[in-house]
Design brief:
With 333 residues, this protein is α/β, with parallel strands linked by helices. The protein has two domains: 192 residues, Isopropylmalate Dehydrogenase (3-Layer(aba) Sandwich); 125 residues, Isopropylmalate Dehydrogenase. Helices cover 37% and strands 17% of the residues. A twelve-stranded mixed β-sheet has the order 3-4-2-1-5-12-11-6-7-10-8-9, with helices on both faces. Helix 8 links the parallel strand 8 and strand 9. Helix 1 crosses helix 2 and helix 7 packs across helix 8. The longest helix has 19 residues. The radius of gyration is 20 Å and the shape is globular.
């Protein structure tokens, strides 16, 4: 039986990332689970949560083995400053990025089959002087991917985004025919590659209310979206739309969709977070590596209290294991 080696980055050290990693280590996993982070921080977190944990140093030369409950292999990345739970410190921003770099590079060279990311605090990383708008964009730059596509899923519902972390005023200009064409091709390719879907059924939302109302509420549907969809249909891709966002998520429309592609962040994600907040998973499409993540933030007030819900990281790890075990993804590319 194939056992994938999965790297989990423990995220913002003052948040619930370390807590979630320690909790997930209490379960057997059909994967070789490696957590990137400060070993002393993870040991202290286990002690704070009163959870038994035997920490060992990660050694890439040792054989791959399924994870045993109560143990944790740690790829040690040292903190710059001691951590106080719930208290952000920009001096540890480089520590967070060092974890991401090590995990990403390990996936690129085939050391790891996938990476799973616990939440980070974007504002703290930016306060430290780093250009950082989110995991998705950072990993795309690190892997030299032309266009990353954010997709969240919960159960059978999948929502992908054409634009991600943009101010709403900047969205219309960012939705060009070229960007939409590339996004939809990536969505189609990775649903086939990672999820084994043959000819994925892709529903595309309009940008404007009522999908523009025949141009009376905006022309983006007529000038940008419809020409792209006609071109992709002529190439054999199974796309439909543009559909109004206020009706596309009705059950009768979702029954015919493998994924819904939204034009901007808050057009699509509120729906999926309503359906599965705390258990939804973020998957980055368009990368040469397999990466999943949580659907929530750092929850600073819950750090080390034992009250954090680890459902989303558990779901992200479960999906990473499943996809790494069954997809046609080649981690060495």
């Amino acid at each position: 039986m194939y056992v994938p080696r999965i790297i989990v980055t423990s995220g913002e050290p003052a948040g619930i990332g370390p807590d979630a990693c320690v909790v997930l280590a209490q379960t057997d996993w059909p994967a070789d689970l490696v957590v990137a982070g400060d070993a002393d921080l993870l040991a202290a977190t286990a002690a704070d949560l009163r959870l038994p944990l035997r920490i060992t140093s990660y050694d890439a030369s040792k054989p791959v083995a399924a994870h045993s409950a109560g143990t944790l292999r740690v790829l040690h990345v040292p903190l710059a400053q001691p951590v106080v739970a719930g208290a952000l410190d920009p001096r540890n921003a480089a520590y967070v990025l060092n974890m991401l770099d090590r995990a990403c590079d390990g996936c690129m060279n085939g050391e790891f089959a996938a990476m799973v990311t616990a939440p980070v605090q974007k504002s703290t990383i930016m306060d430290a002087g780093f250009a950082f708008s989110g995991h998705t964009e950072y990993l795309a730059n690190r892997t030299r991917a032309a266009l990353p596509v954010m997709m969240l899923l919960s159960g059978d519902l999948r929502v992908a985004l054409v634009t991600t972390h943009l101010a709403l005023a900047d969205v219309p200009a960012a939705i060009t025919q070229e960007r939409l064409l590339a996004t939809l091709r990536i969505v189609n390719m990775d649903l086939e590659r990672h999820f084994g879907l043959d000819e994925p059924r892709i529903t595309v939302l309009g940008l404007n209310p009522h999908a523009g109302e025949s141009g009376h509420l905006g022309r983006e549907e007529i000038d940008v979206i419809e020409p792209v969809l006609r071109r992709l249909r002529s190439e054999g891709m199974n796309v439909r739309g543009p559909l109004p966002a206020d009706t596309a998520f009705a059950p009768r429309f979702l029954a015919d969709a493998d994924v819904v592609v939204a034009m901007y962040h808050d057009q699509g994600l509120p729906v999926i977070k309503h359906v599965g907040f705390g258990n939804a998973v973020n998957v980055t499409l368009g990368l040469p590596i397999l990466r999943t993540s949580v659907d929530h933030g750092t929850a600073l007030s819950l750090a080390r209290t034992g009250k954090a819900d680890v459902g989303s990281l558990r779901a992200a790890l479960t999906l990473a294991v499943d996809l790494a075990s069954t997809s046609t993804h080649d981690a060495s590319t």
